[in-house]
Every structure is written in structure tokens, then in C-alpha cells.
Design goal:
The structure holds two protein chains of two kinds. By secondary structure, chain A is an all-alpha fold. Chain A has helices spanning 2-27, 42-68, 73-104, 113-133, 138-155, 157-166, 186-222. Chain A is globular, with a radius of gyration of 20 Å. Chain B has one domain (4-226). Chain B starts with a helix and ends with a helix. Classes of the chains: A mainly alpha, B mainly alpha. The A-B interface holds A 67, 120, 123-124, 127, 130-131, 134-136, 139-140, 143-144, 146-148, 150-152, 154-155, 158-159, 161-163, 165-166 and B 157-158, 161, 164-167, 171, 174-175, 177-179, 181-182, 185-186, 189, 202, 206, 209-210, 213-214, 217, 221, 224-225, 228.
Amino acid sequence: MTRTISLGLRALLWLVMSTCIWGAFFYAWSDPAFVGQSSRILFFHVPMAWTSFVAYFAAAVWSARYLWGGRQMRHDRAAAAAVECGVLFGVLATVTGSLWARIEWGAYWNWDPRQTSIVVVLLFYGAYLALRSAMADREIRARISSVYALIALVVTPFFYFIVPRITESLHPEPVLNKEAKLDVDPRMFQVLIASALTYSILFFWIHNLRARTQALADAREDEPS
Amino acid sequence: MPSPTSSWVASAQAVFTKDWRCELRSRYALNAIALFAVTTLVVTSAALGPAGTNKSLAINVLPAMLWLILLFAAAAGLPRAFVHEEESHTAIALRLAAPPSALFVGKLAFGVSLLLAIEALVAPLYLAVMSLEVASPGLLVIALLGGGYGLAAGSVLIAALASQARGRSTLFSVLAFPVLMPLLLLAIELTRNAVAGDAAGPALPQLLLYDGSVTIAGLMLFPAVWNP
């Protein structure tokens, strides 16, 4: 029964994902006067950046649950898996972003505030993974890395204030901008929101697989040989 | 029977006094930080000469160099605050002797006072060898106090994490630099404003907010780091 449901959900995810990708190329409208066809990378870049932040936030929530929710190892495994996925999506967002930057701004990399912030955030979570690999004892590793994930949550918001002051940004305004008013074509908006949701679901699926394989690896390590 | 508050304060104070007493006996961190800072200062000065006479260098380059010297000096000495407790196996006794939050505050006070002492040595020397004229010295003092506090607080918290892992000193830099980066950017901005004679701007409240956030995060998270 659960197998059928799980199979059905995966088929549904595949269908929705395909629809989003199709929509990005054929349904959404692109303004030829602005950036033309290259703007379609937006439907991959923005959801990936968004998903990486969902992943980091989820990692912090699981870390807090580990520390103050009875110290259960499954919460620590979930946090670690979320950071791994977050780094993956963050790297993909950086790569897609810099491809677009090459086309529109003329260079892959030019230390735009957004580029600076995403690199610092990647360094942060890279350090998290380095920290994990430096501790052999599972309990200590879970405790210390949970604390680090929560420190990240406290410190990273500062970049939001600081970095834009250092250099001018060429990055397009966020779709949901400060005045909270919609500044895009409705079709573009639909595909964007649908992709953001679908990629987040994709993240939770990958995350679930990763956390479960880690649980199996841990269980196998504990078996008397 | 002393009240819980006064015994908490007494514990924090005892940790602070103990750390300074150990430090003055061995002078390990003090020597390491001071010599490191002076060496880098000499190298910078030899490479750049009296760069303060050049207006554009004075505003754009020298404030950043000052904070880089302080960052690396802090990274050379402050991780020891917790590493030496693990190495000399005194961590267990310390766990019994003081509640974690008092221990954190004691270590924090030690780290902050150590770093401010180093700043008091390095900053005037730096201004002198670089011939750097500061338009608003008051703001520079505020930047050094606020920045030094945040630098020490962040380092002490990360030192507590790193002391639990293998390869402590390398790991400390990897863990600490992303955490300290917003603080350094804010401190550099404030120092630059002080040199140029501009108003403090939004960097000052943000620096204080960072100091407050790291302190609160430390108080909340340190018990989880310290107690198994």
C-alpha cells in the first residue's frame, strides 16, 4: 500500500517537474526588448536559489530540534542531509547565475552583491561539512554541528544589510520586491512560483533519501561484526 | 548561603581571574598575539611605507589592513581559551566548578580584555608607522571597542566548537572566518568613516546589533556545546 502511494507521488513529482520545465521554455513569455531568450534561465536559477535557502532554514530547524528536542540522532541526520542538499542547490544557483551574468553583464564573475553573498553562504555551509568530518564521535558531532548551523542562522542575515552598501548591484529586482507589488508578466510569475514549489518538493524527496541512506549506514556501523 | 545570582557572578569572575592568572604565568596567548600583530604590522609597513600620506590609500586600503592584522592576531591566540582546557584535561573540573553560562561569560570577558589590550598596543603603532591621520578619533575608538568585542566574542564561541574536533587550529580558521566576516566588514566601514571624518552611518547600529546577537547566541548555545 505505502509502496503504491510512494510510487504515485514520485510519478506525480515527475509529471509536475516536466510541466515546469516545459513551461519555462514554451509557456512563459520572454521580453525581447529586455534580455530575450536568456531570461529563461531564470526559471531554473531562482527556484534553485530559493530551494537552497529552504534547505538551510530546514537544517537550522532540525538542528534546534536535535538540541532541545530530546537529542534524537534522526534530527541530526536530517540537518546534515539538508545542508548537503542546500550546498548542491546553492552551487547550481551560482553556476546558472554566472552563465546568465556572462551573457548579460559580459563576465562570469564580477562580485555583484548577490554573488558575494552566495559565496559567503556556501563557505559557511562548506565549513559546516568540514566540521562534521573532523569529529568521529556521533554524539559530539551532532551537538557541535547543530550549534554551528544555528550560528549560521544568526549571522547570515547581516549580509542582507551590509553587502548592498559595498557595491552597486546589477542584479534584477527580486520578483517579490520591497513594495510587494508584482512587476512581471503573469505567465512568467506562474511558472516561477510553480517551479519554486516543485523544486522545494524535489529537495524534500532527495533529502528524505539521503537521510534514510545515512540512517542505514549508521545502523550498519553499529552492528557487531 | 549566597544567592544564585551572586554565586553565578562569582563563578564567572573566578573563570576570568583564573584565565588571566594562567595567561600571565605562561604568557602564551599574549606573546603569540602581540608578536604576530607586530610582525604583520612591520611587514605591511615595510611594503607600503608611510601610506597614510596618500589620501586614497588612507581611506580605501589602510582600515582594511588594520582589521586583517587584528583578525589574524585573534585567530593566533584566542582559540587557546578552550583548546588548553582540553589539552591539560582541566575541562572536566571546569564543568563541575561553574555553570556553563558563567563559564562562557568568564571566557568571553577574558577574550575581550585580551583583544582590547592588543588593540591598545597595535592601533596607535599602526597609526604612527603608516602616518595615518584620523579625522574623528572618537569614532575610531568606538570602532575598535565594538569591533574588538565582536571579534573576541565570535572567536571565543567558535573556539569552544573547534576544541571538540580534530585539527583544531586549521578548523578554527575555516569555521570562524564566515562568522566574523560581517563583523569585519562593518568594523572596516566604521574605521573608514573615522579616517575620512564622515558620520558613523548605519554601520554603527548594525555593529552593535551583531555584538548583541553573537553574545545572546553564545549564551543560548554554549550550554549545548559544553555539556554532553
